[in-house]
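QA checklist item 7 of 12: single-chain prediction sanity check.
[x] sequence parsed
[x] length recorded as 223
[x] structure emitted
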Amino acid sequence: MASKLLRAVILGPPGSGKGTVCERIAQNFGLQHLSSGHFLRENLKASTEVGDTAKQYLDKGLLVPDHVITRLMVSELETRSSQHWLLDGFPRTLVQAEALDRICDVDLVVSLNIPFETLKDRLSRRWIHPSSGRVYNLDFNPPQVLGIDDITGEPLVQQEDDKPEAVAAKLRRYKDAAKPVIELYKSRGVLHQLSGTETNKIWPYVYTLFSNKITPIQSRAAY
């Protein structure tokens, strides 16, 4: 296996199971799972300059603009220049992808294609623990007690934009923004598109793709 550092991206709309797939990749291959949502929550909580800027948009119900997310993620990536990593939630737009280009080459991009009806059902049954970002789904990852976070015992909430009436608009926005990103990586020959409705059925294909780029942890332990 090549020893060069692996730079990978998982693309997919809200509800596609990106987080679950990324966690499995991190566990199996030892990649750092870098989630833009996680970093954003951390900066909001710590009231950093980037966090305070993002909060001004979020408080108005607006999307955090490209330049703010890019600044946040580039800063995080620069501190991990000697690690294999996996991006989740970034880049979401062509502007973000071009900013990523300026600091590194992306080796592998996996785009999760999940049917619209499946996404709509998943998102409308998704509940979140606000302070940690832990996500539950009433169908396949329910909390032990309905409406309560397993770890803290605090109440779960359903985000306004996860309510059924808001989901369709969210998915359309994602599709419009992601299309040029997908085309960019497709033109470079690093894009792999996987379709399905269940993460467990998609996972073997993801595992194979990453195994071709980096040795799984279990295999390394056997040497």
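[x] summary fact logged: The domain at 7-114+178-222 is CATH 3.40.50.300 (Rossmann fold).
[ ] second reviewer sign-off
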